[in-house]
Amino acid sequence: MSKTAKGKRPVYLDEPQIDQILAIVMALTSEVSVLHDRLDTIECLLAAKGILSAADIDAYEPDEEVAKKREHWRAEYLARILRVLQEPLDTL
């Protein structure tokens, strides 16, 4: 199931490029907000159960496999965020 909205993108300001930047900023804000809440929940649960402390989390160094996985996720994430700039090109 596609998560792409149907129809035309709403226009809020006089310049379409500013609307695109606004859309990117709002998408990032939404993502960061959700991630913050989830991470805070995980850290609280881990500390409450005595499994990991904030210091343990801060000291973690990812291995090569984890680093590659994160890099792949980051590339897909940026593609989603910057999708608003690519869409007009896809319709030509």
What's this entry about, in short?
By secondary structure, the chain is an all-alpha fold. It has helices at residues 16-48, 54-59, 64-81, 83-90.
Describe this structure in words.
The protein has one domain (16-90). The mean pLDDT is 85. It contains 4 helices and no strands. It has helices at residues 16-48, 54-59, 64-81, 83-90. The two termini are 24 Å apart. The longest helix has 33 residues, at 16-48. With 92 residues, the protein is mainly alpha-helical.
Shape: elongated
Radius of gyration: 18 Å
Mean pLDDT: 85
Continuous helix count: 4
Number of domains: 1
> Element order, helices and strands?
HHHH
Walk me through the topology:
Blueprint: H1 16-48, H2 54-59, H3 64-81, H4 83-90
List keywords for this structure.
92 residues, mainly alpha, 4 helices
